Amino acid sequence: MVKILGIVLLLQAAAYCVDSYIISEDYTVTVDTNYGKVKGGFGARSHANKSEILYWFRSIPFAEPPVGNLRFAAPVPKAKWSEVLDVRHKSQECIQGSSPVSGKEDCLYLKIYSRHRPNKYLNLPVVVWIYGGAFFEGSADFDDHRPDFLLNEDVIVAAVQYRLGFLGFMSLGDTVAPGNNGIKDQILGLKWIKENIKNFGGDPNKITIWGQSAGAASVAYLLQAKQTKGLFSKAILNSGSSLSPWSLAKDLPDATKEVAKKLNVNTRTSSNILESLRQVDAKELQEAASSVMKQKLILSNPLQGLVFTPVIEPNHDDAVITEYSHELLKGGKFHHVPILAGYTSLEGYFEELAALFRLWVAKYDLYHPQLVPDDMNLLPITKAIIAESIKNKYFGILPIALSTEKLMRFIADTQFEKPIQEALRLYSAYTKVYAYHFSYEGPLWGRTNRTYNGVGHSEDLAYIFDYNIKGSEEDYLTRKRVVKLWANFIKYGNPTPKRESLLQNVIWPGNSVIEKAENLEFLEINSDLKIKGIPNEDKILFWNDLYRKYGRLPYSTF
Question: Catalytic annotation on 512?
Answer without folding.
Answer: no
